[in-house]
Amino acid sequence: MKSVLWGLFCLFAPLSMAQAQAVRSATIVYDVEIESDEIDAMQAAMMANSTLTLTYKGKLSRIEMNMGPMNTTVITNAQTNQGLMLMNMMGQKLYKRLTDQELAAANEQQSAAYKVSYTGETAEIAGYEVKQAIVTTPEGETLEMWVTEEILSEPGSNGFTYQGLKGFPLEMDMEQNGLLLHLVAREVDTTTPDDGLFSLTPPAGYGAMDE
To answer: pLDDT digit string (tens) for 146-189?
Structure first.
């Protein structure tokens, strides 16, 4: 399942260009539904209550994916272009420092030309008004998102926004390497997070991942 975890990093770690508006720090907890040909029925059952927690503050970002017996955390500092991946697979705790090359590869979409269009549909998620947006990639693939204008992030702070997206997505459908994810925000906390959450020092008990 290491390839699945790496796919999650490639999906969420890319830094992106949000509109240059007021910066807000936030912690958002998403419920996640996962579909993949790489996951058998038993694994799917264990991942039935998966969550993704995004915490960001300025150029700092922390993404925690809880998939039952497997948990992965990606911490990035866009200011220094450094990153750390932590994995806990059924008690086996590993870490990997993300290289400049890996971060650069994940950031290729930053300069891509994405088309964003709004359908005019609105809804409410986690207490926030959201608008439906369709994001079309240069390859012609479409991503459906429900976006609130009440939550913003600093350009380059995380991979949840695209150029032309007016706000922050609280619901979205995404695909990465055969992994289908549907995310819906359950909780939104705009309290400024502690800097300790973004430490790039591996915690005690974690061993280096074999390259």
So the answer is: 999 888 876 555 667 677 788 889 999 877 656 788 899 999 99
CA 59 remoteness from chain centre:
14
Q: Which of 163, 181, 123 is nearest to 147 (CA)?
A: 123
**In sequence order, what DSSP letters do the residues of 16-32 get, joined into one string?**
----S-----EEEEEEE
What does pTM read for this prediction? 0.81
**DSSP label of 3:** H
**DSSP E strands, the chain:** 26-36, 51-57, 60-67, 70-77, 82-89, 92-98, 115-125, 128-136, 142-148, 168-176, 179-189, 207-208
Specify whether the CB–CB gap between 141 and 162 falls below 8 A: no
Three-state secondary-structure class, residue 205: coil
- Residue 182 pairs in a beta bridge with 33, 173
